[in-house]
Amino acid sequence: MAEAFAIIGLASSVVAFVDFSLKLIAAAKSVRDSIHDTLPQVYEIDLVLQDVHFSNLKAKQMALQDGPLSEAEQHIMTMATECERLEGELRTVIDKLKINPDTRFRAIQSTRLALQKMRREKDIGDLQDRIQRLDERIRTNVQMLLDRKNTSDTLSKLSTLIKSQDDLGIKHDYKLDSIQKDILRLVKSDQAREGQLAALKDHLDSLARESAICRKQYRVIKSLYFDELPRRWSDIASADKFTNDWLFDPTTTSFLTWLESGNGIYWINGKAGSGKSTLIKFAAKHDQTAAALNEWAGPAQLHIASFYFWNQGFDMQKSQIGLFQSLLYQILRRTPELVPHVYSDDRLDHERWEFDDLKKAFESLAMHSGLSTKYCFFIDGLDEYNGEEQDVLSFLSYFADSKVADIKICVSTRPRRMFEPFQQSDNSLIVQNFTEEDMKRHVRVGLQMNVKFKHLPKSDCEELVAEISQQSKGVWLWVYLVTRDLVHAVNHDEGLDTLKKILRQFPPDLDEYFSHIIERIKHVHRVEMAQIFLITLQEVQPLPLFLFSMLDRETHSPNYAVEAPIQPLDAEELSETERVWKARIHNRCSDLLVVGDASHPIFLRYPVDFLHRTVRDFLQDSYYPKLRQLVAPRPDFDPLVSLCRMTLFALKSVPKENFRLKSSLNRVIGLTDELLYYAHEIEKRSTEPDTAPSPVADILDELDRVNCKHASKPGDKHWTHARDLPRTRGYEEYREGGNCNFLALTIQARLTRYVRAKLSANLELLEKKAGRPLLDYALRPRRVTAISMPYHSQREDPRIAISMIRLLLERKANPNQEVHLNDDRTVWALFLLSCYESDMSGEATVAMKKSWYKASALLCQHGADLQPRLDKTNPSFTARQILLKLFGNDQTLQLEDLAAKYREQEAAKEGPWSFLNPKWWLSRK
User: Fold this and answer.
1) How much is the pLDDT for 761?
2) In the predicted model, what is the mean pLDDT of the chain?
3) Whole-angstrom Cα distance, residue 86 to residue 89?
């Protein structure tokens, strides 16, 4: 697309040349008629021609990148060459019209020039005609580029840019259309009037400039978009007409007052299934909300955005990155002119948005001088955030306590102890306290829509309605389920007595209902039901429907994934399998699992998800032992191992991959990281000793082989280099030097049993590893993932594996080994700096610091030098300072004791003459 706008820039330069040349000829004619007139400075034409040169070169470069040019575009590029020829003739004519100021005989020179002018009159006229023809041609070709009656590539690309903005919902002011119309009006004029060419150049420049602004806005806003962004919102049921209106009644709640004049956080609290998400969706999009917030904002620019956490959904639906990225996307697409305030020009289009980037973008937006803005965010399901509870409070405080912008937030959550102080404020409500009348209305309307219900006595129907709302205890999901059963019974011609019986026998709470549903599933399907539920409980994100068919293959051949060929799925087989398994999921899991109709964010389609989060909670908290009992006849079944097999099969079945494409890379790395996560969970939950072999070793070996195949090209580095390195922050930086390998990646993934087996078979893998030492990967396991794994945010997980560090140290890994890629700092020094940066950034949790201390103790016991060089420019910055900051005085002294004992043990091994060994003196530093 870029070359289209380079051609517009070239057209502008040609118009400027024509304009200047015509003015120069007009001046030459004046000099011809009167020897006393003077000519403009000829050097000015050099500046004009430089623009033509530069624009032509840029257009040629763009054409090489973007393909063949249209006829009009080719003509405009040809005109650049013609400008160069005309410039030479112009210069010759003008030079001959000038009087040499140094001549001693100015009168004679003037007379001679006057005679020459008479002979040059025809040449000047011819030159003028040629430039005017050039003027006509540039106008014609610009018209061909931009007139809708033609089909030029440039017009097509301008239209594509506008359509791209529309596709993302980017609000634009149609400047491109307006400028385009003005240009066409100017080029259709019959003659070049005074100032018209200058106006045409200005408009062409404006078109190129505005196009560049729009392209940048589109790139930035597109980079913020993710497919799952609207999915949760569209999955939430919309409120019935006339329900939830109580929210805006100032005699009932404080919500309207808060919208109009309040600040801080408004808390919407409610039990599971009580309709919190529906209420937030209702509030965020209601006209009365917008009107009240506009009153609050006054003359300031108002931004309203919303986000819906979904714990059982995909990564971006349950993470801080997803939250911030979604909010920023919604703000910028409505006010794209704010893009320059949040985006750095040195950011590459393919780079993922990291949390720090997004936070800085918000800070930049809020602090930009001259912007009068107010923000209101609606955030649903804080209790479904997949991370540290403290993180939730931190980002809420960050927003609500902002000193540089007016921000307020309406949030919803289940009852949680950590939120109690906020929920007891005046700016809060408990949903189930207000919904009884709404439920009656909903049930009444739902029943009356059924023709057969209309034949029942009205008083009996009202009795059913009242009983349903009373028994619901404020849980909308319960109302939906019982109403569905009643409608089903009426459609089968059941009478009023049966309907009352159904209602009164309906389980009073959701857990009992879910248990009841499972008990109704046929016994022949129970084992497969349990397998499916166990897999959905362990998965990182909802699996595509097709992969559940792998359970059949696994039953007959546990090694199916390792033995499967590397080839894309057959479209016909895929479609038929999905048709069969859509019915099977329903037969085995009833309505508790739902097959979606969307594509999967990584691979395939039709993600399988729980009906509601309460289903997952029930299976995990109440029914899990029964599920394990049901799969007891298949003792080899492990849902995590099954997930490893499914993921490997998916990796083998992806379309032909090209690691130079972001989509291909994210697909492969996303599936790879999922598999590594499942493999780690297997080791973490295993009751077998660390020395036992990994049950998925063959799957991991095959994973490496498959990805080597996907990424294979002569001279390419190992496929593990395809992922981005973590971004440098302060002292902490990561460099591979082209020497990463699969063993290093499995160390980062903390697969101790797998690594132990590999090193036991070949210790040289440790000794001969170039670049980063393997111990460095264990101590600094951060890696960029296509999707965030749960272990990145679970509170009990410290991110580093002590068992892995112990394994490598027992295999003689050296904590004092220098890493040349990192300024010759030692592995131990790099670990300390990594801990220091994490602590400085506020990431360090109690669990992380405990693991750091255990790792430090192991390293000191194996000879870690407590005086490593940390910073060449700051020799006073020492390891002891870091240890004191991280662990305090007592634990720092304990580490120093461990290091001293190691030195004494080494000295004892050397004997009485150890002081003659230089190593002894180094150890005493």
Assistant:
1) 92
2) 81
3) 5
Q: pLDDT tens for residues 150-188?
A: 555 566 666 677 777 776 677 766 677 788 788 888 887
- 333 in Cβ contact with 168 (< 8 Å): yes
Strand partners, 819: 825
Question: Regarding predicted confidence, which is higher, 217 or 231?
Answer: 217
* Res. 508: pLDDT tops 80: yes
- pLDDT, residue 425, reads 73
Neighbouring residues of 99: CB distance < 8 A, sequence distance ≥ 6: 35, 106, 109, 110, 113
H helix runs in 564-713, sequence order: 571-589, 613-621, 624-630, 639-653, 662-685, 697-711
Distance CA 134, CA 89 (A): 15
Alpha-carbon span 65 to 80, nearest angstrom: 20
Q: Token digits for 807?
A: 């394994």
What's residue 509's pLDDT? 85
Percent of the chain with pLDDT over 70: 78
Burial class (CB in 10 A: 0-12, 13-18, 19+), 533: buried
- 79-137 pLDDT, tens digit per residue, is 877 777 777 777 776 666 554 555 444 444 444 444 454 445 666 777 788 888 888 88
What are the structural domains, with CATH classification, of the chain?
A: 2-223 (no CATH), 231-433 (3.40.50.300), 436-506 (no CATH)
Name the nearest CA neighbour of 763 among 811, 692, 803, 804. 811
CA 584, CA 755: separation in Å to the nearest integer?
39
Which has the closest alpha carbon to 277: 215, 233, 227, 230? 233
Rounded Cα distance between 197 and 195, Å, is 6
Distance, in Å, from the CA atom of 702 to the CA atom of 563, rounded to the nearest integer, reads 9
Residue 456, CA distances (Å) to 448, 493, 496, 503, 506 in order? 10, 11, 7, 16, 21
**Distance between CA atoms of 639 and 884, rounded to whole angstroms?**
44
Separation between Cα atoms, residue 316 and residue 540, nearest integer Å: 12
Find the distance separating the first CA and the last CA of the chain, reported in whole Å: 63
DSSP bridge partners of 373 = 301
Q: Which structure tokens are listed for 563?
A: 């033995």
Tens of pLDDT, residues 566-595: 999 999 999 999 999 999 999 999 889 999
CA angle 670, 314, 845 (to 5 degrees): 85
Contacts of residue 709, Cβ cutoff 8 Å, sequence gap at least 6 = 566
Cα-flanking dihedrals φ and ψ of residue 29, to 5°? Answer: -60, -40
CA distance 744 to 536: 30
Residue (of 726, 733, 643, 650) closest to 679 by Cα position: 643
Read off the tokens for 786. 């296509």
| Alpha-carbon distances, residue 459 vs 436, 451, 465, 493, 498 (angstroms) | 19, 17, 10, 19, 16
pLDDT: which is higher, 743 or 764? 743
Residue of 311 and 623 predicted with greater confidence? 623
Closest residue by Cα to residue 380 from 447, 305, 477, 474: 305
Q: Is the confidence at residue 829, as pLDDT, over 80? A: yes
3-class SS letters over 503-564: HHHCCCCHHHHHHHHHHCCCHHHHHHHHHHHHHHHHCCCCCEHHHHHHHHHHHHCCCHHHHC
pTM summary value: 0.68
**Residue linked to tokens 């082989």:** 705
**CA-to-CA dists, residue 106 to 30, 91, 102, 110, angstroms:** 19, 22, 8, 6
